[in-house]
Design goal:
The protein has eight helices and eight strands, in the order ββααβαβαβααβαβαβ. By secondary structure, the chain is of the alpha/beta class. The termini are far apart.
Amino acid sequence: MKLSGIQKLTLLDFPGKVACTLFTPGCNFRCPFCHNASLVFSCVQNITEQEVLSFLDKRRGILDGVCITGGEPLLQKDIAVLLREIKARGFLLKLDSNGAFPERLAPLLEAGLVDYVAMDIKASRRNYHTAIGLATVDLDSIERSVQLLKESGVDHEFRTTTVKGIHTAKDFADIAQWLAGEEKYFIQQYTPSDDMIGEAFEQFTKEELEAFADIVRATVKTVELRGI
C-alpha cells in the first residue's frame, strides 16, 4: 500500500479522538476546489507501512486512533492489510472516502476494520460531475456507498465542501432528500491553498452556509458547519 505521509497528531480529524492521519496518493476525481493537488496527481510513496507501524507501536496509550485519508484511500487495493495491522495494535480507525468504490468499502465494513467513515457528498446528483471536475460520474457507485453506510451500523458522517460557482441552494435540497433520516451531516467551508487543482474560488458567508444547513435540517438530525 502506498502512503504519502503522516500527520503525527490531530485533534480534529477523528471526532472525539486523539489520532494521527495517514495520507494516500492518487484520486479518481478532479474536484476543481481541491486543495491537495499534489496528492491527487501523485503516485509516490514517501513512507512505508513498516515505518507507520513502528511509529504506532511507540504511540500505544497516547493515540486513540488513526485516520486514513487522501487522495482517495480506496484506490489502494491492499488497504485491508494495513488496516488489520493497525487494528491488531488496538487503534480505532477512521476512513475518509469519496464513495466511488463501494465494492472495496463493503468488505472493510463487514470485517469490522473501520470504526468511523467520513464520506464526501460532492454536490447534488444533477451537479455531481461539475463538483468532481469530470465529464461523467458513476452515480450508482456513489449511491451504493451511501446505502452501505446507512445499513452498516458503523458510525459515519456525510459532508460537503461548498464553493461559490458550483453549489447552490438546489444542491442542498437534493442532498436533504438523498440523506433523509441520517444522523450527521457537515457543511464545510472551502479553504483556499497554494496547492489547488483549479483557479481560486469564493467562499460562502456564514449566513449563506446556515441557510443551506437549514434546508438539510428538515430531514437530517444533526447538521453543522465546519471551517467557519
